[in-house]
Amino acid sequence: MAFFFEVLIGGLLSGIMYSLVALGFVLIFKASGVFNFAQGAMVYFAALAVVGFIDKGVPLWASVILAFIVMTLFGIATEKFVLRKMVNQPPIALFMATIGLAFFVEGLAPLLFGNDVRPLDIGLVDEPIPAILDSLNIVVSRFDLTAAGLAALLVIVLALFFQYTRVGRALRAVADDHQAALSIGIPLQHIWALVWAVAGFVALVAGMLWGARNGVQFALTFTALKALPVLILGGFTSVPGAIVGGLIIGASEKLAEIYIPPLMQSVFSGNFGGIEGWFPYVMALLFLLVRPEGLFGEKHIDRV
Amino acid sequence: MARQIGEVILDLRNISLRFGGVKALTDISFNVREHEIRAIIGPNGAGKSSMLNVINGVYHPQEGEILFHGQVRRDMDTHDAAAAGIARTFQNIALFKGMSVLDNLMTGRNLKMRTNFLQHALWWGPAKREELEHRRKVEEVIDFLEIEHIRKTPVGRLPYGLQKRVELGRALAAEPKMLLLDEPMAGMNVEEKQDMCRFILDVNDQFGTTIVLIEHDMGVVMDISDRVVVLDYGKKIGDGEPEEVKNNPEVIAAYLGTQH
Amino acid sequence: MFYRETGQFKTSYGADQQIFPIRQDRIGIVLLLAVAFVGVPALGSEYFFSAILIPFLIFSLAALGLNILTGYAGQLSLGSAAFMAVGAYAAYNFQVRVEGMPVLVSFVLAGLTAAGVGILFGLPSLRIKGFYLAVATLAAQFFIVWCLTKFPYLSNDSSSGVISVPGVSILGFDFDTPRSKYLLVLTLVTLLALAAKNMVRSTTGRAWMAVRDMDVAAEVIGIRLMHTKLLAFAVSSFYCGVAGALYAFCYLGSVEPDGFSLDMSFRILFMIIVGGVGSILGSFLGAAFILLLPIFLDIVLPALSELLHLPFDGATVSHIQLMVFGALIMFFLVVEPHGLARLWQIAKEKLRLWPFPH
Fold this sequence. Notes:
The complex is a heterotrimer of chains A (304), B (260) and C (358). Chain A has 304 residues and is mainly alpha-helical. Chain A has one domain (2-221). Chain A has helices at 2-32, 39-55, 60-83, 91-113, 130-136, 142-164, 166-176, 178-183, 188-214, 220-225, 227-234, 239-267, 279-290. In chain B, 38% of the residues lie in helices and 24% in strands. With 358 residues, chain C is mainly alpha-helical. In chain C, 72% of the residues lie in helices and 3% in strands. Chain C has helices at 13-16, 23-43, 46-72, 80-97, 103-122, 131-150, 178-200, 203-213, 215-220, 225-252, 262-275, 280-308, 314-335, 339-353, and strands spanning 163-164, 168-170, 173-175, 254-255. In chain C, the strands form two sheets. Chain C has a two-stranded antiparallel ribbon. In chain C, helix 3 runs parallel beside helix 7. The chains are: A mainly alpha (304), B alpha/beta (260), C mainly alpha (358). At the A-C interface, helix 4, helix 11 and helix 13 of A face helix 6, helix 9, helix 11 and helix 13 of C.
């Protein structure tokens, strides 16, 4: 039983990472209706930028600030040169453009900051917490727990930002109705640029945590893709949905990876590892059949 | 006029429709007779479009029943409605924007097509014969609506008034028994309205098509319809011949506001 | 001056509904086919067939399949490569397991198998659309490739799912040279392209486009959404499946599941974006463009690096390739969302008026 909980907790904590990427998706989708496929690539870009600056001898804190500036500039450029020029096109075309953006970023990032896998030391160590290990006999990584705490902090900060600042209010207005927001004088384009900057910041946090855990490498973009089923579970417009969806996906894929292959081996012969590669997607797909709007999404009524 | 108003072919009985907690229609009953022009009027948000959506099965009412062609049902299904000969147009034009006028009209005849996709893939033989046969029918509609010059134009490029006409054409291509028109004249200038009125009357007269229409222009409604039903806040407040409805105090109040 | 439809009067609806109503287009397509079937085989080199023309035709077919689903029926899929994999492995299994199975029949069965799997993964499209569906098709991509890797039965117990296909032989004739394989692929692709064109210009295609453009209105005029969408998934997957079978049998000879990666699915998607969403011709133009671009960059970039005295290694070239792909996709979506096919159409319209444009 202790083993089950260990897997469960490990899954939940890694799910937080998915939540962080999903959060970036939700922010951009809410504010501009763009489903930003490149969010995963942005995580990679941000992490690579940090290690890239560190490689050049810049201290960690300054590298983070520089990476944030880079991400902001990148967001503004994307808004200005791509999305603004596509305002009249159907959402699916915008989605495809962000796939193009993802490719672009995945080529650009290693070109600017180097290609090889590098560790990122942010002063956290991946070791079991002795107190929990002693009392409950469960391995809980100090790193994962700290990362979860940081993620929670980020979500709280974002929630406060949206709720209580003038910019946050404008953002919510834009998310509700672009036309109406425009008509009361909210500068739509500034808001969109801002939201890309915030999404870039979220990507930066996610990228650093992931990079510190597994090394900064291209595989990050595949892991980040798992944020997509998270979104389906949570609903595209819901911040709590992104968090809860991430936890569910994280926990269930780890449990599936541990418990399903032995079952399959008892029926078929062969090695059935690697289930976590597809499990989240298939789970999201089955979930869609039951509840197409997600756990926290709004039900959509077609008006004709 | 040569047409003869016949029996009741559509009877809506105590229809109530809710979206979550919002009541769109409350206990509405009215009927439509064969060959007549039946208007539904009422202020914005009265539930007129919802009513049409109930008739052809886009919305499913929570209460009430629908009698259509002698058969009583709980609600309609879009496919059954279309197969039973109900065609319609929409308030916000719902044409297939990426297709030409001709293709839009041909789509209107899809229920009459018998060939399958394998025959289509081969083309030569039954598929081609059927395509030509329906093309001939569609060309008749094109002639009728005087849109020969734009038959190959993608509908997205057409001006608003012509799009409305093409949408009527798509509905007519199905050779419907009953035509539901949702504000066919909204946003048109006087000339376009006259054209549209003429088409509606001609359809009714020449093909005997029963017409249910929603319209805001009272002049038009009073001129062309046989009977009028009035909705307000999802409730029926009047029903009868144009003259009758015009003098109904409740209707007047709904349109001009009540004095307290 | 030469490309003009004046004087060509249509006297029947039949004449008006030909595939190519303009006479010059008919002459053009006949010439093109003559060159493809006779001229190229006479002149082309081995390398040209096996490295350029065969993959071009196979990817055109896959792009055509995706275009039916995405361009015509409006259902975005990110799993085309997985359906190719289904086709490749199905054809292999039919060949290996059924004694005396004609290779063409196994290609058709491969297409049908892929169609069946396509219908299965198309089921969610009945309840969801847009991005949701795109994510659902990712499930197909990862799940199918995983199955092919992990179930030894599917690859006839070969290690890690690698299969080596038997040679192609039809009615005693061995298709063992690049030239003969090219002709086989060309024939199949031409027939399937013609069938696709016929479908999209008849009721089937109109129903797909109606569902794409406005599904509620399509339903109201009696089009059954379920039937229409699943048919699009089936036909599209059939095309991808046959493309996959050809990919294994006429191009590589030996394939592994991981070769049918998400990256390949994206490339097929890029082909239809660049070529033209909702265009048969566009599928071919896009496939040519996306396949030739890396070859072009491989030639140009090293030359450029020498010229600028910058050290470009292999990794750099592949990164630049990714960037160019990404930038091109965005460029096309911003500037010409209907792709090369639309540019071709505009060119033809200009040509109609040339040399007197007013």
